[in-house]
Task: inverse folding
């Protein structure tokens, strides 16, 4: 029986199949650790949780709807129905004139929106805009720099929604790496500190790792060089600043992944098994750099 009273909006929380994997949430935490500014008191923990909600669930919803489900691409690829006889009109617009053609187009598009698009995708459109507003609200509450990085992330998501690139394409994975790892890592750095050379270098290194993993799935040659080369660059960075324990941990994790790669076979199967090593390596490297 339909209830006469109730909530305006309802959301469903879905756990991603690859939830335990290197991604925006872990990148933001590692970035915050790399600054060494976290006291992990109540205020800092609340800020870290807010940043995680921003970069993982909220921006993740935008990515899922816009890029994976192609929510906005439907708008530019719409198969419009014939124009109805009555509806939107302009004064003095004659049939066959540019004004008349515009009137017919608006009528067709409005009919398509009302009868086809909104009934099928209306809930997703509402979810997208509300998630974007929540993301921007959390970002501005954290820091102005994080707000502008969030605006950049949303802009890149919308760009990829209209011009998607498969992982097998020549430039596949580049923008995805920026949105899902590099920008969240920068937000983590900026949560309690300013950009520092070593923290930024660590973000670039793990950006190479992330890009290499995506391009391995896309079947690119030399993708493994990016994947393992990025981790070796992390080790060299830690050695360069004399953080020997962190470098030793990173080296052990790389060796473990090389052994795993020799027995895993396909790239997707290897990356699935390598996720704990990648997450632990990113957190360990960030924490080590934060001890400087």
Result:
């Amino acid at each position: 029986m339909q209830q006469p009273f109730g909530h305006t909006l309802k959301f469903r929380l879905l756990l991603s199949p690859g939830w335990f994997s290197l991604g925006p949430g872990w990148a933001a935490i590692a970035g915050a650790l790399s600054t060494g500014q976290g006291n992990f008191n109540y205020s800092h923990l609340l800020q870290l949780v807010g940043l995680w909600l921003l970069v993982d669930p909220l921006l993740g919803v935008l990515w899922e709807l816009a890029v994976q489900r192609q929510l906005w691409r439907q708008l530019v690829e719409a198969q419009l129905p014939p124009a109805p006889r009555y509806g939107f009109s302009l004064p003095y617009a004659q049939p066959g004139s540019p004004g008349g053609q515009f009137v017919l187009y608006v009528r067709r598009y409005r009919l398509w929106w009302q009868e086809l698009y909104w009934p099928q995708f209306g809930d997703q459109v509402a979810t997208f805009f509300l998630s974007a507003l929540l993301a921007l609200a959390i970002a501005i509450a954290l820091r102005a720099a994080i707000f502008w990085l969030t605006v950049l992330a949303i802009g890149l998501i919308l760009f990829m929604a209209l011009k998607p690139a498969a992982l097998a394409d020549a430039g596949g994975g580049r923008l995805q790496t920026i949105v899902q790892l590099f920008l969240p890592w920068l937000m983590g750095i900026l949560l309690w500190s300013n950009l520092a050379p070593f923290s930024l270098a660590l973000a670039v290194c793990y950006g190479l790792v992330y890009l290499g993993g995506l391009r391995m799935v896309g079947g690119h040659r030399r993708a493994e060089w990016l994947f393992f080369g990025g981790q070796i660059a992390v080790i060299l960075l830690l050695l360069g600043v004399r953080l020997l324990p962190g470098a030793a941990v990173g080296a052990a994790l790389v060796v473990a992944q090389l052994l795993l790669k020799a027995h895993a076979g396909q790239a997707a199967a290897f990356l699935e098994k390598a996720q704990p090593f990648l997450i632990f390596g990113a957190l360990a490297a960030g924490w080590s750099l934060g001890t400087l």
Observations:
- Residues 98-142 form the longest helix (45 residues).
- The chain has two domains: 39-184, 196-292.
- The chain has a mean pLDDT of 86.
- Residues 39-184 form one domain.
